[in-house]
Amino acid sequence: MKEATKDIAVDTAISAGTAYIAGAAVAAAAQTTAGAAIASAVGTAGASIAGTTVGGASIAAGAAITGAVTGAATAAIASTMAAATAVTSAVASTAVGGAIATAGTAIAGTAAGGAVIAAGAAVGAAAIAAAPVVLPAIAIGAAWKVGKKLFSRKRW
């Protein structure tokens, strides 16, 4: 279980990093004249493919999968947040929890504590800002990986 968790964490980090870099590269390239021309050609090709039966079905399937994953993730996050809030409230109501909360407030009031909090907020803001680029890239990467496994020439 430990090894599987480690492998999943490493694979997730690599996928997210690759998706972020790919998204940034695409965004940078799209701002050039050549990039705009390529984006236009890709858009035209995409519209042509979407107009076919197979392309339309593939796009619809992708949208359905994305919706299902997003819904499941939203539900999981909501239930995790509710559980975390309940645990936090329970711990904070104890003498030890109250002392920890007081210490945390005191630490946050120091220069170093404030800097750590500001850095965490900056990292969180960067992650949220990157999400519209990163999440679709991760979905595309996952679809590519599944398609590659399904349609590879190797047979098990």
Major sheet size, sense and barrel closure: none
Strand content: under 5%
Category by helix and strand content = mainly alpha
Helix/strand order: HHHHH
Provide mean pLDDT, rounded. 78
* Cα distance spanning the termini: 25 Å
Number of strands: 0
Q: Helix count? A: 5
Radius of gyration based on Cα positions:
22 Å
Q: Would you identify the regions where 5 or more consecutive residues have pLDDT less than 50?
A: none
Shape: elongated
Helix content: over 70%
Write structural notes for this entry.
Helix 1 crosses helix 2 and helix 1 crosses helix 5. The radius of gyration is 22 Å and the shape is elongated. It is an all-alpha fold. It is 91% helix and 0% strand. The two termini are 25 Å apart.
The gist of it:
By secondary structure, the protein is mostly helical.
What's the helix and strand layout?
Blueprint: H1 2-30, H2 33-50, H3 53-92, H4 95-108, H5 111-151
Helix pairs in contact: 1-2, 1-5
Tags for this model:
single chain, 156 residues, mainly alpha, 5 helices
